[in-house]
Write a structure and sequence with these properties.
Blueprint: H1 2-11, H2 17-30, H3 47-53, H4 60-69, E1 72-76, E2 82-86, H5 89-98, H6 107-117, H7 126-136, H8 142-146, H9 149-167, E3 175-178, H10 179-196, H11 209-215, H12 225-249, H13 259-267, H14 278-291, H15 294-309, H16 311-328, H17 335-339, H18 342-354, E4 360-364, E5 369-378, E6 384-390, E7 395-399, H19 400-403, H20 407-410, H21 450-467, E8 468-471, E9 481-486, E10 488-493, E11 504-509
Parallel strand pairs: 2-7
Antiparallel strand pairs: 1-2, 3-11, 4-7, 5-6, 8-11, 9-10
Helix pairs in contact: 9-10, 9-21, 10-15, 11-12, 12-13, 12-14, 13-14, 15-18, 15-21, 16-18
Transmembrane segments: 6-25
Organism: Lentinula edodes (Shiitake mushroom)
Binding site for heme: 447
Length: 511
Amino acid sequence: MIIFIAKVIFALVLIPIGYIVYGLVYRYHQRSLKFLRGPANTSLFFGADYDLLHQEETGVLEKKWFEEYGTAFRASTYFSEDMLMVADPKALQYVTVTSGYRFPKPEDVRQITAFLMGRGILNAEGVIHNRHRKALNPAFSAKQLRQFLGLFQRSTGRLVGNWQEELGNSASEGSVINVTKWLPKITLDVIGQSAFNYNFGSLDGKETELGTIFENLFYYTEEKRFLGFLNASKRVARPLFKKASAEKITRDQFEGKDVLSVLVHANQEEDPKKRLDEDEVLSQMATMILAGHETTASTMTWILYALTKNPKDQEKIYREIQEIRERNGDNEPSPQDLDSMPFFNAVIKESLRLYPIVPIITREAQSDDAIPLEFPITTVSGDQISQIPVNKGQRVALCLGMYNRLPQVWGHDADQWNPGRFMNPTKKRTLGVYANLMSFSAGLRACIGWRFAVMELQAILFGLTEKFEFCPPASGVLDEIQAVPFGLIIPMKKGKWREGKQMPLLVKARR
């Protein structure tokens, strides 16, 4: 993703020189945040974007800047335009929740999103986004999602079986498994079956065009895979949609609230204010397939990484699982059972806090505005301010990952692994949709599938931790793993990014 985005930006340098000059002059004089402190501009064309995308470890630069300048500061973006970077909780609340649709995605971000996923919900703004969200909401209600828990558990059982087969006679000693190879398989199968009644068969070794694209999506030599994803996903989605549409026509009333059913219903709406056209429907399916599986797989990878480095916490989870088993016998845990495990859920929350899969999202002021701050900052002139005036068109980077690590919010150990902070939280906040975290964003554009993702994480973590113990593969190996900003936060070995995703863990069968 880094190379792809960098190439998109770099292509701007190759366009006619007249446009470059125009872009530089226009953007430089269009708006200014020079009254704010911030890091020096290191690139005339690329600004801080290049530095952020090419840092070896996600968050290193942001942490340095936020420690020096406070919870909001000025940085530069491409063509040396000023960009406001914020992690202040009140500012994030204002932009994502209070302001409604007044801070849309910038046009260039929308173009890249459309290139990857078409005209789906992630690319929609304003009334169009509202139409998409209302159409999809029935598929992601808490009541609707409970019916998918059995699927999550059966899929986890298949993954457990594959790992047990891979361990073979070395089950007690364990074998090293690169979990980034397997976790996307289970999440791809889950999203295919739950949302579209489509069997990718990834865990069974079935080869599909989309499965092959996903397997190679995060290798440096395979950035071209992104170019074919949207077309390939639409080729898969179109016959599923056509078949479901034909079947619905034969029924007297709308049945089912899975994603495919609600999309068919939205496509056949008579009211144009509610209807989704066929391309929007196919784009929604592409969006759900990409956003709904890789993000959850990556989060699960980081959960296992954290537990491997903290074996005592892994054992606490295992003890909670045993308590559920003693109470339920052979019956699989219910949603209420999974929610009743305090430390188990604290681990999921702490992992989402430290490893938010999308650490920065970008917005743009639709009109002149003033963004309030909970924690005042110092300007270039030495004044203390509690709000930042912004002009129409001002680019704003919402640093979700930095908010999740703010000492002012999470305490002196904000950079450290400590699931206990969620057992007895001392401060009550309502930011975000889950556990006062910004990992799923907030407001009208919060992740529509966050409940789906949390329940899926619960089911997979329960099933894997019950059957396996996760240990460091060898001395120092996990110290080589870096959280690389590759669009998502991707685990890779230091100096070996071209090998793609890596999370080798020593997996032992529990006795």
